[in-house]
Design goal:
Layout: H1 9-15, H2 28-39, H3 46-54, H4 57-67, H5 81-88, H6 90-106, H7 112-135, H8 141-150, H9 153-161, H10 163-176, H11 180-187, H12 192-203, H13 207-215, H14 227-242, H15 258-264, H16 271-290
Helix pairs in contact: 2-3, 2-6, 3-5, 4-6, 5-6, 6-8, 7-8, 7-14, 7-16, 8-13, 8-14, 9-10, 9-12, 10-11, 12-13, 13-14, 14-15
């Protein structure tokens, strides 16, 4: 279904209402939403969380493979979800579950090389966001990884739901040598930020992750407490581009937004050391690339 041009937001929302048709999207948000809800309940214990994850055998297998990777660096083998929860904590396991679930969206056969390129870039953005968060001593570092991982998910949704419109955006991006985001706004009147935000809402993820995904190209638009996370994802996206990890649909490296720079006090950050850290963490994270 082509996305309406020059229509109001309600028309565009209706046109994109078939988000659930993407492979596995109709079932996976249930698992994620349930786990998220459980983690908000202080009475939830390890056994209950482990059982919720184990209801999906495929998900369980992927989670155990990831927790045993070099990315997490445990010397001994973790053989059960319960053991993983005890060692890593509720929040980290929730983010691993989310990552494994998002991976299934990128693995759809119709995505081809585009999906692989965006997955690699998105993963690099997650790694860069977490590394930057540590550097600036931001409290919610794991949320930064998730927000970075999801920041371009709207591009994959657009590719699958409106392939003709997607092709027009790509053609305009290549012809004009512009950002994919700018071409979306000009050609479709809607961007992957908005589309991704709709998906995050459907998955019932925290508001700060929603804001980071839906505003990472224009972080100055946010004035609330979530602006720092959005600024981190904005910068991480640009750092991942500069380091050449994957491809997000264009070949541009945007300028860092002035407000994001000031919010993170990047003039006090040793960027060369930060880039070295990102590259080191990326090597550990390549297990995620191999899964695709």
């Amino acid at each position: 279904m082509p996305i309406p041009r020059n229509g109001d937001i309600s028309e565009r929302m209706q046109a994109l209402g078939s988000l659930h048709t993407i492979k596995n999207l109709n079932t996976q948000p249930i698992v994620i939403a349930r786990i998220t809800q459980m983690l908000q309940d202080p009475a939830t214990n390890t056994d209950e969380l482990s059982l919720a994850i184990r209801t999906d055998q495929g998900l369980t297998t992927r989670v155990l493979k990831l927790v045993n990777s070099a990315f997490y660096g445990f010397p001994g083998k973790i053989g059960s979800i319960s053991h993983a929860v005890v060692l890593l904590g509720f929040s980290t396991v929730k983010n691993i579950v989310l990552t494994a679930s998002v991976l299934d969206i990128f693995k759809t056969n119709s995505g081809g090389q585009f999906a692989r390129n965006v997955w690699k870039h998105s993963l690099a953005c997650g790694v860069a966001a977490q590394s930057l968060a540590r550097t600036v001593e931001y409290e919610f570092q794991e949320e930064c990884f998730v927000a970075g991982l999801l920041h371009d998910i709207g591009k994959v949704v657009l590719f699958q739901l409106a392939p003709d419109d997607f092709s027009r955006v790509v053609e305009h991006t290549d012809k004009m040598n512009t950002l994919f985001y700018d071409s979306e706004c000009k050609i479709l009147g809607i961007s992957h930020q908005e589309i991704g935000g709709m998906l995050i809402e459907q998955w019932r993820l925290p508001k700060k992750i929603l804001n980071a995904v839906s505003s990472h190209h224009n972080p100055a638009s946010l004035e609330d407490d979530d602006s720092k996370l959005t600024a981190i994802v904005h910068c991480a996206d640009i750092f991942a581009r500069a380091l050449g990890y994957g491809n997000s649909g264009d070949k541009k490296i945007p300028m860092i937004d002035d407000k994001a720079w000031d919010t993170l006090k990047l003039d006090t950050v040793n960027l060369e050391r930060l880039f070295d850290t990102i590259e080191s963490e990326w090597e550990k994270a390549e297990v995620y690339v191999q899964e695709l």
